[in-house]
Write a structure and sequence with these properties.
single chain, about 350 residues, TIM Barrel, 8-stranded parallel sheet, globular, binds flavin mononucleotide, fatty acid biosynthesis, NADH:flavin oxidoreductase/NADH oxidase N-terminal domain-containing protein, FMN
């Protein structure tokens, strides 16, 4: 992957775990991530706020203050000590928040339409406030927040950053036409709706180098009332624009799995984007060992990211190598705050039954 020498294709997907008390990463995160690190394995850290207006869930980390940067350092060091490659996912939730914002302000978005639905397995957010539509002249400030956060992430020791353009958060709220109802140069045409995303990419790539920048996109997902009427056109446009910036990787989420003859099937709709993208391609969403091997063999993707399986199996690459049994994940502890339970206490192969 660019200048990074990966030894295998099993990527840890970004996973919000709500254990960064007061938005500050904690020492237990060093244990958690180093458990999952392998020599030459890529880990993508949980979504990390770029500013004090970017947060929407309890105890999710940030990377905009000195204290946060210092707190990340030993966590990144612990991953590097095991030879892991570690990227920080840069996040702004936009309207997926409430009025516990600085000065009690409303969350910001591309729109003033409120989110009405929730993430399917998300028990952690009760209600989203009505957002405030960003003024055109306020947008450069948000782009700047991403730039500074990227610089901070590099200062904390991360090898690079992944811009979170997926799952219904701020960047997705600009890109997708179910949400973006703007009439300025950030709304309307595909080009206009993608403008904010690409300004963020440009700023971040300028700041830390395109060879350390990835982007995550979920064109086909309808998360938090955020969907597009022509997802493939959106995704292809983005991928071609990302090529112009020469970024390192594109990390794309499959459409939701569909039930076919009593079994869940991954739709495998990313091929046109994989073909169009010039950097490293990462596919995610519902993969297991067999299906991961299959898509790599077919050249459908370079790398495969695993979310829930990696959460529950700290030694996932080793289990895949041996074709060993997997621990099952416990949904009830995905977003709880305990520093151990459901976090660092999933057994390793030699300790499991
Ligand atoms: C507990 C949990 C937290 C997640 N947090 C994030 C996140 O911070 N950023 C992100 O882009 N996706 C997040 N996701 C989505 C995952 O990265 C992944 O795309 C999703 O789980 C589907 O992959 P899987 O079938 O391998 O689990 C999260 C998913 C789960 C289950």
């Amino acid at each position: 992957m660019g200048k990074f020498d990966l030894s295998h294709r099993v990527v840890m997907a970004p996973l919000t775990r709500c254990r960064s008390y007061g938005s500050v990463p904690q020492p237990h995160a060093a244990v958690y991530y180093s458990q999952r690190a392998t020599d030459g394995g890529l880990l993508i850290a949980e979504a990390t706020g770029v500013s004090d207006t970017a947060q929407g869930y309890p105890d999710t980390p940030g990377v905009w203050t000195r204290e946060q940067v210092e707190a990340w350092k030993p966590i990144v060091d612990a991953v590097h000590a095991k030879g892991g490659v570690f990227f920080c996912q840069l996040w702004h939730v936009g309207r997926v928040s409430d009025t516990s914002q600085p000065n009690g302000q409303h969350p910001i978005s591309s729109t003033d339409k409120q989110v009405l639905s929730q993430m399917p397995d998300d028990a952690s957010v009760e209600e989203h406030s009505r957002p405030r539509r960003l003024l055109t002249e306020e947008i450069p400030r948000i782009v700047e927040d991403f730039r500074l956060a990227a610089r901070n992430a590099i200062e904390a020791g991360f090898d690079g950053v992944e811009i979170h353009g997926a799952n219904g958060y701020l960047i997705d709220q600009f890109m997708k036409d179910s949400v973006n109802d703007r009439t300025d140069e950030y709304g309307g045409s595909l080009e206009n709706r993608c403008r904010f995303a690409l300004e963020v990419v440009e700023a971040v790539a300028d700041e830390i180098g395109a060879d350390r920048v990835g982007m995550r996109l979920s064109p086909f997902m309808d998360c938090l009332d955020c969907w597009d009427s022509d997802p493939e056109a959106l995704a292809l446009y983005m991928v071609r624009e990302l090529n112009k910036h020469g970024i390192l990787y594109c990390h794309m989420i499959e459409p939701r799995m569909a039930m076919v003859s009593g079994r869940y099937h991954i739709p495998h709709r990313l091929l046109p984007m994989r073909k169009a993208f010039k950097g490293t391609f990462i596919a995610a969403g519902g993969y297991d060992r067999d299906e991961g091997n299959e898509v790599v063999d077919e050249g459908y993707t370079d790398l495969v990211a695993f979310g829930r399986l990696f959460l529950a199996n700290p030694d996932l690459p080793k289990r895949f190598e041996l074709n060993a049994a997997l621990n099952e994940y416990d949904r009830n502890t995905f977003y709880t705050s305990d520093p151990v339970v459901g976090y660092t206490d999933y057994p390793f192969l030699e300790n499991s039954a």
